[in-house]
Amino acid sequence: MKKLKCTISYDGTHFSGYQVQPNKRTVQLEIEHVLKRIHKGKNIRVYASGRTDSGVHAKGQVIHFETDLQIPVDKWKDALNAIIPKDIYVKKVEEVSLDFHAQYDAIEKEYRYFILNSKEPDVFKRNYMYYYPFPIDIDAMQEACNYLEGTHDFTSFCSARSNVKGSKERTLYEVSCQKEGNELQFILRGNGFLYNMVRIIVGVLLDVGSGKITAADIEAMLKQKDRTAAGITVPPTGLFLWEVSYR
Question: What is the pTM of this model?
Answer without folding.
Answer: 0.95
